[in-house]
Amino acid sequence: MLRRGLILFLPRLVGLLVVACCSMSIVYMLACTPKGDNQQLALPRVHSPTAKEGYEAILQEREEQHRNYIISLKKQIAQLKAELQGRTEQLKNMQNQYSDSLDIRLDHSKPEKAQANLLAFLRSQVDKAEVHSGVKLSTEYAAVPFESFTLQKVYQLETGLTRHPEEKPVRKDKRDELIEVIELAVGSLNKPDGVSKAKPHVYTASDFVEGIYRTEKNKGTLYELTFKGDAKHQFKKIVLFRPFGPVMKVKNENVNMADTLINVIVPLAKRASKFRQFMQNFREMGIQQDGRIHLTVVYFGKEQMNEVKSILENTSKSANFKNFTFIQLNEEFSRGKGLDVGARFWKGNNVVLFFCDVDIYFTAEFLNSCRLNTQPGKKVFYPVLFSQYNPSIIYGHHDSIPSLEQQLIIKKETGFWRDFGFGMTCQYRSDFINIGGFDLDIKGWGGEDVHLYRKYLHSNLMVIRTPVRGLFHLWHEKQCLDELTPEQYKMCMQSKAMNEASHGQLGMLIFKQEIETHLQRQKLSSKKT
Questions:
Q1: pLDDT, tens only, 29-58
Q2: 270, 271, 333, 397: least buried by Cβ within 10 Å?
Q3: 142 or 253, which is more confident
Q4: What value does the mean pLDDT take over residues 465-476?
């Protein structure tokens, strides 16, 4: 009986268990059904043929939501990265400007680190300045000119109304500055190098030849000093830099100019009498005193040509001078064309070119300055010459006009620094060729020199611009021809006005009648009394 009862009860128990399991499955599915954005999604029926597709749709929708959310997060992360990078660049720029000085100022607790930071800052100032190489400049007005000096005088461009183009360093700070620099350079030259066993030459301030310097307000002051060397035509050159702090020795090198030839190129048309005067200067300074010089004359046309050739040949015979070239061009005069032809005609080794005019007077010291301030691939020299006023106005109250040598005095009453002229220049032939030479489309007077000057400024060559005491522009009456363009004619007339006399002397001429009337009144009043 018991066994039969169990057999009858088991099917019922199994059925109850099946019903319980189904009920629990339904409750679980209702609880775990995913919700939509606004309401709970409907649960597919278990036995429905679309149950599988329903679950797949739910999963796809959820996956799409997560994908959109990830894309949104990535966009926000990218924006944050961009902002962070921008802020980092700003911080770096500020650190480049101020971090060195802040480190030096704040790190007093570690003297060794402070000293290292100071040296690093000073070295960075040297790197920023034009010490080792030039920088590209936009216009001819962007170049910072040098000023030159000797033991007794300073030759300066920015004279204003109270300073003179040549003067003793009256201001104590300037005098002390230059004395300190010369003494430091002498001490550096006399410092033993530990290599040479020969008795060293003891340098003194009397060995100092000349120096140039310039100050860039955001970097410091650069000095280049030249001393006499151990032999003739040899020099010692010291480069110093004051980066708004102690003077630092940048370079100490031997400069041997014994074999450095200068090719003086003179374009010419007519003006035989001026050429005779030029050759007297050339013979004395170039041939007799210097001796390492070549002359190239590029002559335009045929008028007065035989006279010019005769002057050249006579100088050659009397001075035993064979280093000259005469080139004749049958075309209209063009200064740029003449200089360009003369430079390219040279077939020897790389040579220093001095672009000159027939109304220029130079000294042997200037020729050395020309050599010392040029370096192939690195430096070109644009000296500022001293332009002479009209001697008949300057010495009009004298009995006679002094000789030419006596007129060559650097004073406010006798002339001015021709800082608007860029025609006289020294550079190596290789640099002139590489820069592209002159613009041969420019005809007549003016413009070609500024064009070449701008080319050098736009390059990586260092342009040395400084007044020099051994280069003079001799006064001559200037003719401004009608054939010139309006811009050239304006430049010519401005140059003509500047060349006549100083402001004070021109004022005396303008008010001459008033002055004479005043003097007559003074005489009459004195007679009455």
A1: 554 444 444 444 444 554 555 566 777 777
A2: 397
A3: 253
A4: 93
Rounded to whole angstroms, how far apart are CA atoms 33 and 443? 94
- Tokens 């002057």 appear where? 311
Fill in the DSSP letter of residue 287: I
Average pLDDT, the chain: 82
> What residue segments make up the domains of the chain, in order of their start?
140-190+202-256, 262-507
**Count of alpha carbons within 13 angstroms of residue 238, beta-carbon side:** 26
Question: Letter for the amino acid at 506?
Answer: L
Q: How far apart are CA 17 and CA 36, in angstroms?
A: 34
Concatenate the DSSP letters of all residues of 126-141 into one string: HHHSSSSS----SSTT
State pTM to two decimals: 0.68
Give, in order, the Cα–Cα distances in Å from 11 to each of 18, 21, 411. Answer: 11, 15, 135
**Two tokens, residue 462:** 């260092």
Q: Supply the DSSP string of 185-205, one letter for each residue.
A: HHHHHTS--SS--SPPP---G
Please list the residues that pair with 427 across neighbouring strands: 353
Residue in the structure block whose two tokens are 């030159």: 148
Q: In this structure, are residues 419 and 384 in contact, taking their beta carbons and an 8 Å threshold?
A: yes
Enclosing H/E stretch for 459: none
- Asked if pLDDT for residue 165 goes beyond 70, the answer is yes
Distance CA 149, CA 166 (A): 9
Amino acid at site 442 = I
Q: How far is CA 150 from CA 20, 142, 156, 190, 210, in A?
A: 116, 26, 12, 20, 5
- pLDDT by residue (tens digit) across 328-339? 999 999 999 999
Q: 262-507 belongs to which CATH class?
A: alpha beta
